[in-house]
Amino acid sequence: MAAGPKQAAIHVGDRVAVRLDAKSTEESRGEVRYVGPSGAQRAVVGIRLDERKRGLGDGKRSSGERHFRCEPGHAIFASPSQCRLVARAPRRDRRAAGKENEAAPAPAAAAAPPPAPPFDLEAELEAVVGLAGAKDALRSLRNRLVVGKKRAALGVVDAPPRLYLLVGAPGAAFGAVARALAGLLGDLGVVGASKVAREEATRWRCGGRGDRDRAAAAARAAADALDAAGGGVLLVGGAGDLCDGDGQAAALDALCEGWRSERTVLAVAVDEPRRAALLRAAPRLAAARAVALELADYSEAELAELVRRDARARGFAVDPAGDGPDWLVRSLAPRRAGAGEGEGGVILARACVDGALRRQTDRVYASGTASSESLLRLRRADFEDDGARADAGAAALAALDGVVGLAGVKEHVRALTAQVRLDRERRRHGMPVERGASLHCVFRGPPGTGKTTVARLLARALGALGAVRAGDRVVECDRGALVAPYMGQTALKVREAFDRASGGVLFVDEAHALVESDKDAFGREALDTLVKLLEDRRGDVVVVLAGYSAEMAALFRRNPGLASRFPHVFDFEAYTAAELGAIARGLLAARDLELAPGAGAALDEALAAAGGGNGRAARNIVEAAARRMARRLDGRLRDRRTVPPDELRRLLAADFHP
Hints:
This protein has 25 helices and 19 strands. The chain starts with 14 loop residues before the first strand and ends in a 7-residue tail after the last strand. Helix 9 (300-313) packs across helix 11 (345-367) and helix 22 crosses helix 24 (615-638). Helix content is 45%, strand content 14%. A 5-stranded antiparallel beta sheet has the order 4-3-2-1-5, with no helix packed on it. The chain has a 5-stranded parallel beta sheet with strand order 7-8-9-6-10. A 5-stranded parallel beta sheet has the order 14-15-16-13-17, sandwiched between helices. It is of the alpha/beta class.
């Protein structure tokens, strides 16, 4: 009797057909992913089917051996005799092709896959930014499961939780927490696979004309989701959306019904405002007594770390130096504060990096540079949002308008910021702009006229326009901070002050005292070093020299080069009596103090007696009056007598007289 044709050998990459049911003639086709031994079987064929089938796995056998990996529902193992060769893999070895008519040889023992590294919960949590509460809850869960196994050996059973509520705002790292949960549960044998399948609730808005149609659609959605989970963790994202209408929670209810018969853990992500509504809409979910993992909002520092990691994942690096260790935190603060519902956390970090990459691309293109550092490094300017900058600039000018008096100074500040804004717009359109235009200023006028306050607001306005990198950085110094008692050390002190003010404003108060006389060698060294740094580090620091009018004129005569380097001169005038009164009353309101009848006249008399139009005098008078009020009430307070609240805030006329 003649022998029949020998079966063709099957190799990885071949296309085969296989019967899933011996009683059926229907075949399913797929690609061979594994050929070799498995457990006690000398030869099995692992196939990734083209079509997904319910009940199939992802390449891992029930014994725990994994021979290949594919999507859940597509993997099947069969003997070589059950497989029918459909097509050879492309570019096969010719020797193998020449043996197609030979009997299938016994496959050589395949190399065992390397063992997976042991799961380390602490390492997994360390990789997650923030979320301290959720991390502690996972540690407590680990302790419960480990101790529960020991109790089970003594006959006391504590069934592991299989339903979890991940409670947090959209943008929280639900996926990272779910992966840590899956790793922990898989390591301790609670689930069959340490993997996460994610389904968004928006896909489960089941339609249909009636309740029966919605229920059927919900059941199909639940079955598909459980198949995708494949014995791991099923994460349902945005579950709060399922309680926003009639019948939309049917999918979750059906999921809970099918989930009880599967070795799958269910993790449901929902925001806190809709947690209660979700549990009311899905009774089976509420009855399952879920373990809650709270995902708190990210702090500003944590948001900055999310941004760094997102940029790193895209191949970019955030400038580690910037303008100090906290520059990224400061840059992101306005975006975090203005983020709407559903726009925070990971979502906000991704949006910040998207915007930074757009601005960095425009900046690199305009500069014409092509070094690896310029192409792949994100700087502070790349993270400055134009909308946030505009708001910050408007806020600074509004605060300036709230300052008493100084009409001429306010107009000068507005003119300067308008020029900066115009130059920026011309530069954006490729129009010529004066290069190296100086923003250094001179504030001259009597003491106590608000020079320091205006310098801080000017820095904020310039920062909002991008004229300085750090508009919130104003370094204040005077002669004592810049002039050293020994020759050669003064230059070092001036450079250190410049370094501290890098990217911001250096405010030199009483600058006229830098050079006290023609014989003041140390003062001259400070002034000469300052002038040199203005040239060497042009554009890095805006310097404001403040002092009395006549004395500042003498200083400029000692160094003729100062005038050209400080083109913006602001003249601060002494406050009028009415302005001093307004300043004093503003200070009283800030302290929650009020004037008794007749006390207003006493305040005005005290201000007139102080003279000089000095704003500090108004502060000193208010502080002295507050101390006299405290002394006046002290006897009653020490005797533990009740003092009405009105008397605790009311200043009498006598409080303004020594």
